[in-house]
Amino acid sequence: MAVFDKRNISMMMDLYEMTMANGYFHDVHEDSKVTFDVFYRKNPDAGGFAIFAGLEQIVEYIEDLHFDEEDIAYFRSLKLFHEDFLDYLKDYRFKGDIYAFPEGTIMYPSEPMLTVHAPLIDAQIVETAILNQINHQSLIATKTRRIVYAAQGRVVSDFGARRAHNVDAAVYGARAAFIGGAVGTATVLAGQAFNIPVNGTMAHSWVMYFEDEYTAFRHYAENYPDGTVLLIDTYDVMHSGVPNAIKCAKEVLEPKGKKLIAVRLDSGDLAYLSKKVREQLDAAGLQDCKIMASNSLDEETIASILAQGAPIDIFGVGERLITAKSDSVFGAVYKMSEVEHKGKCIPKIKISETPEKITNPGRKRVYRIYDKEGKAIADLITKFDETLDLSKPYRYVDPEQPWKNREFTACTAKELQQLVIKDGKRVTSVKPLQEIRAYVVQQLNEEIWQEEQRFAYPHKHFMDMSPAYYEQKMDLLNDNKWEK
Q1: For 466, which DSSP code?
Q2: Would you tell me which CATH number, out of the four given (3.40.50.300, 3.30.450.40, 3.20.140.10, 3.40.50.261), belongs to the domain 2-125+333-479?
């Protein structure tokens, strides 16, 4: 549809957001402000942490939030909305504040990585777009980090576009994968949009087009002498692919003073074949030639291949990265935590028969607590107006074991949420993607315990509360008004 080519992302919402906004417009005081928190309940793949990604796209969305004449005409056609509400949308702009973790922050379940404090209508209509970006990019960044961890320092590149769920999933997935640790992407549009290094080799069709495999390799090497990577499994890896790659290196590249950069395997037993390929390359004096592998890889297959001693240097990871197989739902939610009206703030809590679905009420602050070695030992939630003083032992509450007396001693704290949108306008600078990526690495190398990073039964990061905050939550839970 032609209309999709000029789409307004402001229309990325569930219908109920607009029907509620229409109702609020008529039935609620204009000065009512509310607070919504974005958080998730469990780490993907039973991991120990997740990576916050997608913030830059949220900021761009908020700053451009508006409704065109075509959008308003569409709403009118639904015959659901009052005409004065549709008139209100003509000059609509977001007027609230947004607080968020810095993009790339290591995060844990139940803590708000993003908070919206805004007029009621403003806070309601941004729900779906915010969740869409966070749920997708945080999922892919986290999955990529698992794959990079399994690769044990070897290169990982995103090869996933053709198996992504659509164009946006491929492009923003490549962005998230780069944040998570991929060195680059095969997706040209993502490279262009986000200045991500692009990489790629050839397809089997290149080899199949020419009269024989060696001729295909020769033509490729003559076109790309500074970056020759040859796909060696079109016909027979050991009896054709490797010998022809070696011949190309000796007869085409070496006379030009160039080297064969790598050979790629895209099928078969990658552990076995890579060992045999390495033997032939080394025997031919091509010790510098790297081996690249692709073909339905993920953290489990990579870990298994390397455990078998596979001498693979580069992994091109496609479908299982870009779709986050085998846990393809991140599950971040958007829940109201406070209502502010005429200067009075009323904390709100969602009650559920499922304990993990009970929300944390009220405006709050989130701190990361560090021991004297600089390791993150816990995250702490406090009331928004509390002052955290760690200059002396600080008593806190473990909500899972509230009867225990616990305290932080000789610790420091960093507040995680920062103001990123004020009155609808950006108040932070755009961070280069390389900086966000480096921030992930810095946290994992210096702050986050290795025990939280393992795949099997990772250590659970502690999520604690100040006594005042815990008391507020218990008071709301003990209040039976919702049952009347």
Answers
A1: -
A2: 3.20.140.10
